[in-house]
Write a structure and sequence with these properties.
42% helix; 324 residues; eight-stranded parallel beta sheet; alpha/beta; globular; TIM Barrel
Length: 324
């Protein structure tokens, strides 16, 4: 399929590059490093070779969210966003931007979101999970009350928000002790992000701001498969939910969330997501440079799904959601 659009496609600046080093072995780090720093050369050649018309670019992880000092976090976010705006301006028909935001300071994050959308022309934002705020051991999630004003502005601007994974801090990762292979994309990324998304659903956020649209990568971080059980939970007891949200969480999932295929190139999983969410709420992505563009594109182009769904997932849904 030609004309595909990818939404979870990363880059790094010098100040955030080392954040990605721990995800691969030393022998392949030089390749990942070159992929992260490149935008206009190898990345573009691979897009051309595999039918990708456009990438929405975002900063690597955890980057800004892992900088406890709010002023420094905001400085790096602005620097990354200005760099990205310059790169997008070189080929706006091939690249668009998602803002990095320093959620350590909600007011500053709101101002930067507004600047990125109104002045830089970005199409939304991508945030790497929880933020460390002042204390390096802190983990502040986006259902916290301090972010109410931010979410109100996001809804007003009418742009999507990509909730991207990061690993839990060592102080909160006892379940992984002795099993470091479970961290990162193997398991911890998905678990961490799924819980974060469920917290947002249960918080009442979407009752207050029903037009907010949040994107989850990796085919929904396991939630399409699990969301029914989240709501059912011993239904025979008829106990009311113990959270502020007014509706079942699955209803928010189907109305306020999209998922992408980033880093999860499995047809059976895609079909499950289609059955749970509908093809209108799934979008193609690769997770470059952590995954290969050819792996994503060759799989998707041949996946056993209806051609109408392929057109929606590969391109149409992103055009509609991001107003491309």
């Amino acid at each position: 399929m030609d004309g595909k659009i990818g939404l979870e496609e990363h880059f790094a600046i010098a100040e955030t590059l080392e954040d990605s080093k721990g995800f691969v072995g030393d022998s392949v780090w030089p390749e990942l490093e070159s992929r992260l720093l490149d935008i206009q050369e190898k990345r573009l050649r691979l897009m051309d070779a595999h039918g990708m018309e456009l990438m929405l670019l975002s900063l690597n992880a955890p980057a800004v969210q892992g900088i406890p000092d709010p002023k420094r976090a905001a400085e790096i976010a602005r620097r990354a966003n200005d760099f990205l705006a310059r790169e997008v301006a070189k080929r706006p028909t091939r690249f668009q931007g998602l803002a990095a935001l320093a959620m350590q300071d909600p007011d500053e994050a709101t101002r930067e979101l507004r600047r990125c959308v109104k002045e830089l022309g970005f199409r939304g934002a991508l945030v790497n999970g929880f933020s460390q705020i002042r204390d390096p051991d802190s983990m502040v999630y986006l259902d916290d009350a301090r972010y109410r004003g931010f979410w109100a502005e996001l809804e007003k601007l009418d742009v999507p928000f990509y909730l991207h994974p990061r690993n839990p801090l060592p102080s909160a990762a006892q379940i992984y002790e002795g099993h470091p292979w479970l961290l990162g994309p193997t398991w911890a990324f998905g678990q961490e992000t799924a819980v974060h998304a469920l917290r947002l659903m249960a918080s009442g956020l979407f009752d207050a701001h029903p037009r907010i649209q949040i994107i989850l990568g990796h085919m929904g971080e396991g939630l399409p498969y699990s969301i029914w059980r989240v709501d059912n939970r011993n239904a025979w007891t008829q106990q009311p939910p113990r959270y502020p949200a007014k509706r079942k969480l699955g209803e928010y999932f189907r109305e306020n969330f999209y998922v992408t295929t980033s880093g999860n190139f499995r047809t059976q999983t895609l079909i499950d997501a289609i059955l749970e969410l509908g093809a209108d709420r799934i979008m193609f992505s690769t997770d470059w440079p952590f995954e290969n563009i050819d792996h994503a594109a060759l799989w998707f182009d041949a996946a056993a799904i209806a051609e109408a769904d392929r057109a929606k997932i590969g391109r149409g849904n992103a055009v509609r959601l991001f107003k491309l």
